[in-house]
Amino acid sequence: MMERKRVIVSERIAEEGLQLLRSELDVDYRDGISRSELLDIIDQYDALIVRSVTQVNEELVKKATRLKVVGRAGNGIDNIDVDACTRYGIIVANTPDSNTISAAEQTISLLLSSVRNTAWANDVLKAGTWDRKPFRGTELYGKTVGIVGLGRIGSMVATRLKAFNMNVIAYDPYIADERFERFGAEKKNTLEELAQEADIITVHTPRNEETMHLINEDILAVAKNGVGLVNCARGGIIKESAIIEGLESGKISSVGLDVFEKEPATGNPLFNYSRVVCTPHLGADTYEAQKRVGENIAEQVILALKGGIVPNVVNLPSVLSEELDYLRPYITLAEKMGNIYYQVEKTPISRVEITYSGPITINETEMLTIGFLKGLLEPVLWEKVKYVNARLMADERGIKIYERKEEQSPKRYKNLLNIKIFNQDREMELSGTISRARNPLLVEINGYETEADLEGYVLMMQNEDRPGVIGTLTTALGEAGVNIAAMKVARKTKGETAIMILNVDNKIEEDTLKALTRIDGLIGEPKLLHF
Question: Which residues belong to any copy of the ACT domain (predicted)?
Fold first, then answer.
């Protein structure tokens, strides 16, 4: 019986997530564990689940000798050194979709509360004063909202604000034009252009070096007088000192903040302004979101520990879950094609050229390249090659990777992967696709056309294209107790060299392989591959 993998959960997650983890893993739930204690015991665990407090830095990663995956129960990864995790082959996964609805709704809540002075009026009324004059607000109808960041949450905010009959403009240099059109947002090419037109600005970007203080004094200087601001993303994207300056001058009329530059935020000077509505980072704090976060991160950690392809891996290319379902068999195909080389050749590789052809090219194909590199390097490296570090390991070994896409497949197959692997003497060329049953097929090797299944044990050899060679070979295998499940033969020109590719039911012993080399008509040594 296999030993169950172990996971430590260092911060609070929903009970539903814990139950899911316990169904597959040994769970150590240590909400609030001290840093020193975590460092002392982290080498005992295969997975770590955190929220925003636990610092997963290089110090921790070095001690985590068993760690395979870090799960972030939530979206932001400010507390995780992703580069260090990648170097050590550790997957970092988060749950970007789990709190999308809650974060979008919190944005709308703060926006409405701030423009109508709801929180301020509530405080005054409860203090015993009935006075409506100070609290006159503004309508959203017909106003222009400027959305900075049109990703998952930003696009959901756009959809909801369209229902208020607002004009939606957006700035996001990393999003295709089609996405702006899809969500009814008018694209602005610069942040300044957005600021000049927006009555309200709401930000929905990650916090990094590029976005820290993205909305600052310079941007607010070109904004409309009386502009409203909302930040439910990350503290510091809107510069807090610039907000105070704008409130004092009257440039800013309303502010809704769920996040702050320093958290926990107590005694923040923004709390002194009646026109600022503040909440303590509640964007994801709904029962529904926390349940989804807990369940989703549990599912991803379990999948990662089983060796599966995880949908929301931070240190791998971003792929939508529905896109991943489509690409998954092609990733497996690419990995198995990579696995062929060092089972056949022993010469170091200098470069690889990969061509993706067919409708598959409209998708993100980087995961296929990574899958190929993982399969390529696994047979020859002592250290464990994983999806997250395969490209890094290839770079360290001086393997240059060239990729291109062609809309039309050059052969009869709908989608095709063509891979040329170059060493100092020669090249190996492979082409592959997937079958109707979505299984990996090798359809060409070094110019020989075939349709061989890349499953289990596969025997490859060259032979003279003449009568009797195949019969002699199959007889020899039968006498050795080897059952042939499938067999493909291919040639380029009649009467010259051909190849045979056989799927066999079991491993062929070394003495049997040596005996095959003595068969008249076989060329070179047969190669037994295992997938």
Answer: 458-531
Q: In angstroms, rounded to a whole number, what is the distance separating the alpha carbons of residues 531 and 342? A: 12
Task: Write down the catalytic residue from 245, 263, 403, 429.
Answer: 263
Among residues 204, 234, 292, 391, which one is catalytic? Answer: 234
Residue 10 in contact with residue 48, Cβ under 8 Å?
A: yes
The yes-or-no answer on residue 263 being catalytic is: yes
Quote the pLDDT of residue 450.
95
Domains delineated in the chain = 6-96+289-315 (3.40.50.720), 100-278 (3.40.50.720), 329-530 (3.30.1330.90)
Query: What's the rounded Cα separation, in Å, for the pair 154 and 338?
Result: 39
Contacts of 106 by beta carbon, 8 Å cutoff, 6+ apart: 232, 258, 279, 282, 283
Nearest residue to 50 via CA among 15, 25, 83, 75: 75
User: What is the per-residue pLDDT across 390-443, written as a single tens digit (0 to 9) for each?
Assistant: 888 898 888 999 999 998 888 889 999 999 999 888 899 999 999 999 999 999
Strands, E assignment, 388-496:
400-406, 416-423, 427-434, 440-445, 448-453, 457-464, 484-491
Q: Over range 145-153, report the average pLDDT.
A: 95
Write the single-letter amino acid at 228. G
SS3 category, 479:
helix
| Residue tagged active-site, from 72, 116, 281, 292 | 281
Question: Hey, what are 162's tokens?
Answer: 């369209």
User: Is the pLDDT reported for residue 208 higher than 90?
Assistant: no
Cα 285 from Cα 256, distance rounded (Å):
17
Say if residue 496 is exposed, middle or buried (CB neighbours under 10 Å; 0-12, 13-18, 19+).
exposed
Question: For 101-163, what is the HEC assignment?
Answer: HHHHHHHHHHHHHHHCCHHHHHHHHHCCCCCCHHHCCCCCCCCEEEEECCCHHHHHHHHHHHC
Pick the closest to residue 429 from 355, 497, 360 (CA basis): 355
Q: What is residue 350's three-state secondary structure?
A: strand
- Structure token pair of residue 125: 């009324």
- Judged by phi (left if over 0) then psi (alpha if -120 to 50, else beta), residue 149 lies in left
Q: Is residue 18 within 8 Å of residue 29, measured between CB atoms?
A: yes
Q: Catalytic: 234? A: yes
Return the pLDDT at 318. 67
Residue length of the chain = 531
Which secondary structure element, helix H or strand E, spans residue 444, and what is its range?
Answer: strand 440-445
pLDDT at 2 over 80: no
- Would you state the structure tokens that stand for residue 103, as one six-digit string? 């974060």
pLDDT (tens digit per residue) in 279-304? 999 998 999 999 999 999 999 999 99
pTM, 2 dp: 0.65
The CA-atom distances, in angstroms, between 298 and each of 28, 387, 394 are: 13, 20, 31
